[in-house]
Amino acid sequence: MNLFQVPLQYVERAWRDGASKLSDAIEKAQGEVTADQLKMLLTRGERSLIGIRSGEEVVAWFAVNVVQEPNVRHLYVYAIYAPGATGQEAFGLLAGYAYDAGCSEIRGACSDAVLRLWTRKHKAQKLYNVMRIVLKE
User: How many domains does the chain have?
Assistant: First the structure.
């Protein structure tokens, strides 16, 4: 397996070649962003598109961004499509990408099921809950 970052000028091509599967993850984003909006963020460089290749096949896509907080630099994972890359090798590639970017952590919002999976497989720790209060409908 190898991890690669898609250069901005090739995001459109990568989207047609399979990165559009991130749309499945976006459906769980509670309306924060649509698939078309994610694609726009990727093509403008506001998020980075990375993939993991196993042989000739891309088995995972990630929409990520490096975030510098006052006390920590982390790789924030906004969307994942990785049915063929949930093991330690794939996670090690993602962790290496984050480390090479100067990050000391990987973060992301996720469902309870993904939290259990990442806790079991990767020793993830729950930081806090994100709540929403709708002011007007």
Answer: 1
